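To the structural biology subgroup,

Please find below the input and predicted structure for Helix-turn-helix transcriptional regulator, which we are adding to the shared reference set this quarter. The sequence is reproduced verbatim from the submission form. If anyone notices a discrepancy with their own records, reply to this email rather than editing the shared folder directly, so we keep one authoritative version.
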Amino acid sequence: MRVPNLGETELLVPLHDGVFEQPMWQTFLARLRQVAGASGATMLIRSGEGEAVQFGSGRAPPAITEDLREGRVYSGDELEIGASSLRAMRVATGDGLQATIILTADNSFGADIASLLSALAPHFKVALRVLETMERERARSEVSAEAFARINFGWISLDAKSRIVDHDPQAGRMLSQSSTLRRGHYDRLTPSDPAVDRQLTALVRSFATDPRARPRAINLSHDPWIDILVAPLRLEALAGGTDAVAVVYIRGDRSSSETRAEQLVDLFDLTPSEARLAWSMAQGLSIAEAAEEHGLTIETARNYSKKIYAKTGARGQVDLVRHVLTGVLALA
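Predicted structure (tokenized):
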């Protein structure tokens, strides 16, 4: 088994830790420059056809591209840029991410520098795979966060006096942007409807004395639609060592009924009148209630409803609710 030399050993830890630094690999490149006696140490990271991102000191010669054979150390003379005081090596993950290390010096490099870079190549490749995995997971997390933001789901924990103990970012945005549910005096969670306020206060007090009480759902607004589920706090992570006794789960709709109707037109090829009626029925209104809301006769509303069921494939109002509220409109 080959024993790493001193310079290689003191480079390995910062090489693998470099993906967690900001800017990335700053310690590794600084030590590499010192160990190699170089005036500049640069790393170029490129993903697919994207433009390379540069880390470290010095400027990378434009002639250095991804055409370098992976794992081989090149001199400036081999790259036909007329510089014997340059060394470059490229590695790639096989999934599109690749990186090139470039060393520059005021004087010529010795053969030991090429050996050092070659010994670092497999470690460099592992670090690059870690970066690739992290970026992939970051992208997935961003998509998931965007999905949760689109469905306007959030939570707020409360103490026995309905004061806000903690909340997630999405609920925080809703508190600052919606008048339906806001942060009142003394950090108290305050619905705009006094009747709902009294109901929420009573529920929270009951949960303070009976943590096994049944959660209750409350509708706060029909346009846009906002519901809350008030439940006793059974998750220690949300309590956070505080006096929180209840959690309010919020599900809100960022769009107006008119906007939702326009989206239903796009999704199911409904007429505007049919779409408005379909959205009202999806909110739980009966045909008679929806007809009155939109100024239609019962017969006209029933005629529209038959066309709505035919175009959406729904077999009834319950099925229509499922088609509308659990489909892509929940993310729109």
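Summary notes: Residues 6-147 form a domain with the Beta-Lactamase fold (CATH 3.30.450.40). Residues 111-150 form the longest helix (40 residues).

Regards,
Lab coordination
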